From TrEMBL:
Key words of the record: Coiled coil, Cytoplasm, Metal-binding, Zinc, Zinc-finger
Pfam families in the record: DksA_N (PF21157), zf-dskA_traR (PF01258)
Protein name in the entry: RNA polymerase-binding protein DksA
Gene Ontology molecular functions: zinc ion binding
Keyword Metal-binding among UniProt keywords: yes
PROSITE patterns linked: ZF_DKSA_1 (PS01102), ZF_DKSA_2 (PS51128)
Domain Zinc finger DksA/TraR C4-type, residue spans: 91-125
All copies of domain DnaK suppressor protein DksA N-terminal, residue ranges: 23-88
InterPro entries for the chain: DksA_N (IPR048489), DksA_RNA_pol-bd (IPR012784), DnaK_N (IPR037187), Znf_C4-type_bac (IPR020460), Znf_DskA_TraR (IPR000962), Znf_DskA_TraR_CS (IPR020458)
Amino acid sequence: MKGKNKTKSEKKRSLREEKILEIKKKLIRQKEALLSEAGDALNTLPDETLFPELGDQASAEIDRNFMLRLKGRERQLLKKIDEAIEKIDSGTYGICEVCGEEINIKRLEARPVTTMCIECKTEQEEEEKLRER
């Protein structure tokens, strides 16, 4: 019969699993809020109205394009949220896609849709900066 005393690594593992379940709940709430906001925003999206003044027409078009761009970002975030929830369900959440190491739980709590540990993300951003030059 196994004793009731958990090893230090078992306690650490179960604490991490609990935190990941909390993150999943947070992701689900965020997804529901985004879907609700998206529905409201679609109902208030300005129509493609023709204005007699060219300046008014241009202004209305800029507003509409801005709203549509926001929707695109929200769509991307929803996709990332769905992917994170899928990974939690499959047991692969919190593993860096680049190096394969566990992502620090504090990073996951701060940025639940992340797919990289801080070291790999920092390296990626530095490489992007070099390419921009």
